[in-house]
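USER:
Make up one protein:

ASSISTANT:
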Amino acid sequence: MDETDDTSRLHRIFRELQGKGLIGRERRLVQCPVTLSVRGCPALNCIRYRRAFYETHLSGASNDTLRFVLLHEEGHIRKGSSLLSALPALPVLPYLMLLHHPASDSLLPEVLASLQAGGLPVVRLASAALLIVAVFFAYRTYHRCMCDEEFVADRYAAEAMKRCYRVGDPG
């Protein structure tokens, strides 16, 4: 089977799932060179996949496996959080804003100058430590949210496979 026939199998399964109402009818399946694997993209209303990833990891998979992968990504779009990807950047943004643009009418510039006059960069060390702690806790929150979102997407795919394809144990 050549690669055109193989990717058409993925598209055929995608259309089949749309026909059953398991994937939104307005959703598109798009080949994307920047996506590392297969990913649901709610902002663009599509499921993106990388051809090289598909050929290496999914082309030999069964139709049920491909259904599960596509339904999993649909689960991310329907039940996941589109803002979750921005969570790790949140602690860095206020730090950068304060570091480079302190308010001119505040006491911050005077306090910074007086603390740094002692020869030790206390404020920079303290702000770096605060940033490290904030990034650590943001990562923990992000990781926990990602695990929850992956579980929800897996559950959506498993329930759809059980209901529509009579797969006893999709996991």
Observations:
- The chain is about 60% helix and 5% strand.
- The radius of gyration is 23 Å.
- Residues 96 and 102 are 10 Å apart (CA to CA).
- The mean pLDDT is 81.
